[in-house]
Amino acid sequence: MSDDDLPQPDQIDGAPHPRETTRLVGQANAETAFLEAFNGDRLHHGWLLTGPKGVGKATLAWRIARFLLATPKEDCGMFAAPVPQGLDIPETHPVNARLQALSEPGLFLLRRGWDEKTKKLKTVITVEEVRKLRGFFAMSNPDGGRRVVIVDAADEMNISAANALLKVLEEPPADCTLLLIAHQPSRLLPTIRSRCRELRCRTLAPEEMAEALSAAGTDGGAYAVVLSELSGGSVGEAMRLLTLDGLTLYKEVMTLLDTLPRLDRSAALKLADKAAARGVEGRLDLMLRLFDVALSRLARAGLGAVEAQATSGELLTLARLSPDANAARAWAELAATSSARTRHGQAVNLDPSSLILDMLLSMNDVARRTAA
Q: Residue 218's Cα: distance from chain center in Å?
């Protein structure tokens, strides 16, 4: 398999790669914070980009990288360029083409590698990947300009890789900026977090979701409110829902949950078989994610915290299964335990249909105690 054919660990299914997205929606505060530091000559060597998965952290990292690599660092006195007012660079700038081709000598992309033995992506970023930075720093930049390292995602590093990167943060090379993307920053070493300045990316509101989906070239704007609800404001997750027909799948899930606490066994078996079907990559992960969404919405419904409807009849089903705070607590407890059980089931390669049936039977048991 050639390098061009390898799956990219830093790309969400159904979404364009972050380096292909030049427009970022909903993260103006994070962009402004970085630009103010740059213009104020307070450019930190390490930046930690945090927030839920799929809200634009990687797109922001690539925008920053593009901007830094295209902006001269020399002070030209009275002929100096005006102070930048944004992170955009001209479309015709050669840095754009080089980044698209991953041929920019001033950029190093640190991400999970390919395992030739298993023919799969590695599950973590290993220390061998981090050690490749030595060669990157040893080479002189032909333009004599800045260097940028993007780590996507930093919370995927194993402990040896994290310690190796920490040494780089402790003694950063000159004119180098490290951009660490973290979906769960709490998993990082405290010493790594303390050596970086944080840029927090937030979830997107429905109108921002519509704008972001349009910018990504998808026709999902009409479902922006529903997608915002189901994705938790993550445009990356919304793209995955659209690509894998997640809206239809969630409707099927809610139709089945409406039969609780008298679970429709026949319909449950059909849904479980759909999760196990071959030829649809990511279907099981998406279905488990949608069950997590349903459990979360059930827990919130008992507290009166669900207002928008994600599919027809959903609010009535949620209200019946989670009528009060006691029910909300029961659904929240199931959400916590089921997540660990499904992760374990996937780790030991449990049959996908068994995972789904186990989830539904557990939900049926809770519904017996909570349904109004």
A: 18
Rounded Cα gap, residues 149 and 62, in angstroms? 10
Q: Where are the alpha helices (DSSP H) in 154-264?
A: 159-170, 190-194, 206-215, 224-231, 235-243, 246-257
DSSP lists the bridge partners of residue 114 as: 121
Closest CA to 157 of 191, 207, 122: 122
pLDDT tens digits, one per residue of 68-87: 999 987 655 555 667 888 99
Rounded CA-CA distance 213/215 in Å is 5
Joined together, the tokens standing for residue 126 give: 């290993």
* CATH code of the region 3-200: 3.40.50.300
Contact 204, 233 (CB under 8 A): yes
Per-domain residue ranges for the chain?
3-200, 244-370
User: In the prediction, which pLDDT does 4 show?
Assistant: 58
| Cβ proximity of 225 and 219 under 8 Å | no
Q: What digits encode the pLDDT tens for the residues 291-304?
A: 999 999 999 999 99
Percent over 90 (pLDDT), the chain: 67
The CA-based angle 77-81-85, given to 5 degrees, is 135
